[in-house]
Amino acid sequence: MARYPTNGLTLDQANAIIAAALAKGHELGLMPLTVVVLDAGGQVKAMQREDGSSLLRPEIAEGKAHGALALGLGGRELARRAQAMQGFMNALSDLAGGKAVPVPGGVLACDASGLILGAVGISGDVSAQDEVCAVAGITAVGLVPDTGDPA
After folding, report:
1. pLDDT score at 130
2. 31: exposed, middle or buried (C-beta count within 10 Å: 0-12, 13-18, 19+)?
3. What's the pLDDT tens digit per position in 20-67?
4. Is residue 6 part of a domain?
5. How many CB atoms lie within 10 A of CB 51?
6. Which Pfam families does this chain map to (predicted)?
7. Whose CA is closest to 39, among 19, 17, 24?
8. In a domain, 1, yes or no
9. Torsion of the alpha carbons at 148, 146, 16 and 20, rounded to the nearest 10
10. Residue 15 pLDDT > 90, yes or no?
11. Could you say which of 1, 12, 31, 70 has the lowest number of CB atoms within 10 Å?
C-alpha cells in the first residue's frame, strides 16, 4: 500500500471537522456558515459553504485560518495584537496577500503534544459563534483547539 504525506490534517479529519462545525452551527441556529480547513502547510484541505452564506465568506474564513497558522496563534490573540500593534498586523496582512483576518473564528488544530496540524476558519455569524463551531469541529476529531486564549 502506498503511503503519502498528509502535511498535518488528513482529508478525513478535515471533512469530519467541517461536518461537526456545521452541525454545531445548526444546533445553535446560526446564520449560514463557511468552513475552511487548512493543513499544516497553509493549503486548503477542505472547504464548504452553506447555502445562503454570503459572497466573501470563503475568503474571510480562509483569512481567519491563515492568519492563525501564519503566526501560530489563535484568532483571539491575533485580535488582541491587532489592537496593540496595528502597524505589524497591517504588514502581516499585506505580506499574506490579504489572507490574515485577526479576529476570533480562526482556530489552530493541534495534537495532544501541542504540535500544530492545521487551522480552521469559519465565517458567517458573529466571530465568537464562528469560533464555537470551529472548536466543536476540532474536538470532534480528537484534536486540541487553540483559540488564542488560555485553556
Report:
1. 98
2. middle
3. 999 999 999 999 999 999 999 999 999 999 999 999 999 999 999 999
4. no
5. 5
6. HbpS-like
7. 17
8. no
9. -60
10. yes
11. 1
What single DSSP character describes residue 145?
A: E
Domain count of the fold of the chain: 1
Separation of first and last alpha carbons in the chain: 39
Confirm whether 149 is domain-assigned: no
Between CA 140 and CA 16 the distance in angstroms is 8
Q: What distance in Å separates the CA atoms of residue 75 and residue 69, rounded to the nearest whole number?
A: 9
pLDDT at 7: 87
Residue 90: how many CA atoms within 13 Å on its side-chain side?
A: 5
State how far the alpha carbon of 140 is from the alpha carbons of 17, 31, 79, 91, in Å: 7, 21, 25, 35
pLDDT by residue (tens digit) across 65-79?
999 999 999 999 999
CA angle 18, 23, 27 (to 5 degrees): 150
Tell me whether residue 57 is exposed, middle or buried, using C-beta atoms within 10 angstroms of its C-beta: 0 to 12, 13 to 18, 19 or more.
buried
User: Residue 71 is part of a domain; what is its CATH number?
Assistant: 3.30.450.150
Q: How many residues does the chain have?
A: 151
Torsion angle, alpha carbons of 76, 100, 128, 118, to 10: -80
